[in-house]
Sequence to fold (475 residues):
Amino acid sequence: MSSTLIVSVIVGYFLLLILISYVTGKSDSNDSFFLGDKQSPWYVVAFGMLGATLSGITFISVPGKVADSAFSYMQMTMGFFFGYLIIALVLIPLYYRMNLTSIYGYLKDRFGNSSYKTGASFFLLSRVIGASLRLYIVANVLQMAIFDSWEIPYIVTVLITILLIWVYTFRSGIKTIIWTDTLQTLFMLLAVGTSIYLISEELNLGFVALVDTIKESEYSQVLFWEGDLHFGKQFFAGIFIAIVMTGLDQDMMQKNLSCRSKEDAQKNLYWFSGALVIVNLVFLSLGALLYIYAEQKGITATKDALFPEVALNGGLGIGVGLIFILGLIAAAYSSADSALTSLTTSFCVDILDFDKEGDQQHQIQVRKLIHLIFSLILVVVIMIIKSLNDDSVIDALFKLAGYTYGPLLGLYAFGMLTKWKVKDLYVPIVCVISPFLTYYIADNSVDWFNYKFGFELLILNGAITFIGLLLLRRS
Fold:
């Protein structure tokens, strides 16, 4: 496939995003950047959140995991559904009642300033690494598809990837992202649907035959009752992953807080949670189809390399390759752009203590500088990941969440399930120690009745933090 043609499609795509940014970004006020002036239609937010939640990692890694774990990811997706219901019924009313810009303001009101800064800091760490993992995937594919043939260094590819995000987000932040994410979700879903259609056509499979082929394949098992894929482990891990990676995550909640009312934000989550189950099933079906096609064509790529290899070098024609590139970019950028915006928001509001009474013009200038600094930080972290990664990226993301979001889970659980106050000054110590204790227990799990921890180490981490806060409670 011509690199020039791919670049032309990408340039056209980003010109469209920049146009949307221009139309929606006429105001660069902090109210627009942080919360979109609280005017976002809930149905637009719900659709855009699909892309932000799925990201380039789902686009690549979920289909790639099918060979090792079949459709077991649906067990976790079922857990996601119930986790989102908890967010809608418990956390959304809390955040709207407190009229929060950053959700970590709850920790300040409940425990004190040290807890507040600790919660925000764990989010910043989590989101920097998570966003970098997502962008790492798209940078790898762009390098393979375009820039290797032009002998352009990987670092330049990464810089271009980040620069494109910065260009259309630096002015109006979440107000622009609500609409660009909607477009990007549409492109991502079109890419997946079109890929399934074109591959099934190549295999001479009609719709009914396609469904039967996937259903009868070795990849279609959903429920597992032993080992790492046990339903209970996956389901409950899914519930808590949804709660922490959406409900306790400024990135995802910032979109919800931009809705006009609490009721609109709840409608958004109800529709989004149902749609996510269906979309994940489609991604897994694509994975099964990719492996079936690869077996027939003698393609040996697996895991994260499978979809790119089939789309770009699998003999399916130029159309599939272009659709794949467009879908990947849409998936990756729909999560990464909001991550960059939420990092800027959290740092400005939680760390620098921006408020509406301060010098607004000065705060806007500082906000734009912070936005640029976080862009450069993402570049550095992506390069570190490039030198270290040797695993499926979606596994790496969820393992990371277990360690970095666990203290947030413990803090919010303690705050909402008890009425005790704590010795706020010592809360950071508990939250730092907890992930290390979790790692020790999980890494030495053979000594714990031969139990092996998976993604549910998030629950363990939260429980350890909760116990630590109990020890800090005031008499």
